[in-house]
Amino acid sequence: MRIFLAGATGVIGSRLLPLLLADGHDVTALTRRTSDAEALRSKGAEAAVADVYDAEAITRTVRNASPEIVMHQLTDLSGGSSEANAAMRKIGTANLANAALSAGARRMVAQSIAWAYQGGEGPADERTPLDLTAEGPRSTTVRAVATLEETARELPEWVVLRYGVLYGPGTWYAPGALMAEQALAGELVADGDVSSFLHVDDAVAAAVAALEWPSGAVNVCDDEPAAGHDWIPAFCAAVGAPQPEHATGAGPRHDWARGASNRHARENLGWTPRHRSWREEFGAATDGS
Q: In angstroms, rounded to a whole number, what is the distance separating the alpha carbons of residues 280 and 266?
């Protein structure tokens, strides 16, 4: 298949590209930096240099690639700004989707998140509405996610991958990265808020599988949603940080911090995470391995 990969140099895109090429796909890899183009070509991809915020340029670029499928793995997380990432989800996605439609692409596979759901009891599934009444900084994230997903649905076929919190090499949860720095600074508090995690390699595997999935949103996360009082001490130990302060009370601070269920992916799509629990990585370091 002819695939246009947006976000080819990111944490997921850089791992996704060689798998797509190994499967025999004809891949055009997007980068906004000319300096990255030669490296992408050396891997066997066609390289396209354009800024997704430039609607005219990205339309021309996608038309030239003439893809059947556009894979949207674009984020803007380098500065840790939720506003910058929200702009990418709204403006960047709109420009990419319009370009895909103009080029006659039939499908979009887009990266979303699994913690934008309304509050409630137990892990959220795909039928749970997004938390569109959220306030404050969370509102910025949720509304941008809703816009991204609505835009992806403009394609004849679409799959929205609602990823859990990514961990593993290159993510914020790797040693030396943002969350490890916060742990070392004693800024993490072990509380009752529940998260669902996802190893970056499992995120990549799901993106490959989604080339053939039916249209819809899919929670892509591991099998063990975990409260902060379980995973945060393990994470701190894994990155060599002191044990965290524990919040008073056992329950979650936020009713939306409920984790997500991967039952639909497992039972209906045949996808299971190779890293079934965050404990495999966080716990390994705790045990000294």
A: 19
What pLDDT shows up at residue 208? 98
Separation of alpha carbons 29 and 45, rounded Å: 6
Q: Where are the domains positioned within the chain?
A: 2-165+199-221+261-274
Q: What is the pLDDT of residues 68-96, one digit of tens each?
A: 999 999 998 866 678 999 999 999 999 99
In CATH terms, is domain 2-165+199-221+261-274 a member of 3.40.50.720? Answer: yes
Q: How far apart are CA 96 and CA 70, in angstroms?
A: 8
Cα(264)–Cα(118) distance, rounded to whole angstroms? Answer: 18
**Measured in Å, how far apart are the chain's first and last C-alpha atoms?**
41
Buried b (16+ CB within 10 A) or exposed e, 55-75: bebbbbbbeebebbbbbbbbb
Q: Is the pTM of this model over 0.90?
A: yes
Q: Do 115 and 163 meet the contact criterion of CB atoms below 8 Å apart?
A: no
